[in-house]
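Before the break, one more example. Copy the sequence into your notebook; we will annotate it together after we see the structure.
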Amino acid sequence: MQLLRVAAFLAGFAMAGGVAAAQPATAESKQAKNDIWKDEPKETPPSWQRDLSKDVVEKIMKGLQQRDPAKANELSELRQKDPERFQAQLRQLGQPELDQNIRDRLETRRQERNAKFVEWLKANYPKEEQALAKLKETDPQLYISSFDRLMKQYGYIFEANNSSPEMGAVLKADFELKTRADELWRQIRNEKSDAKKQALGMELQDVIAKRYDLIVRRKEIACEQLLKKLNDLQNQVQETKGEIATWRDPKIKQENVKRRVQALTENKVRFKWD
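Here is what the structure looks like once it is written out:
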């Protein structure tokens, strides 16, 4: 019985604590919503600080050790004494390694994009991808020129498909119709039979009509995308108007000013319970 009473007491205490904890949480969320200072622009660190990750620092020190061992040793000592000056000097002396680091990042992105393009090519134009894959093993130089040709030919469809699969499908279908129209036009020019010319002309008219519909659909999709962006902007405008109306409240202003002054002047050591 005693154990049951203790258990009931602890359960009641936990529930009371939960209710009490819920109230500050609600107050905190309301306070965060009415906090005008959350939109203040944050200071962007200098580029030399952003670029100098641990790996980059080690690369620079290794390169500097090869170019100028004395300067590398001097920087190693400065690294312990004055880390801020160390980074500033490292940024100046390590320009070759930093430039190479940028080139490496760009090359990595290029290779990732090329790999995705090849996968897309395999799914949409398998014969062309198979021919390209064979060249990679037999003739690397021809592989590069063939890859560039395919990228020029299909790259815009690939890019469109990344942002809108429907737009990609429309552009792909339009490309195929355009290719067929060009073939039909060449056949018509070389054909001697009037009957065959007429049949080819009828097919060409049908292909051109289908292309027309696809072009209209392409413009519709582009318009839908613009409308979505416009709707998002309108929602942002309405949200900002609501925030402005809130911030015009004298009570909210007073709370924000008080909070900001406290944040700038308060320097107390808080007890850590956990």
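Residues 1-23, 269-274 have pLDDT under 50 and may be disordered. The chain is about 85% helix and 0% strand. Try to locate both features in your own notes.
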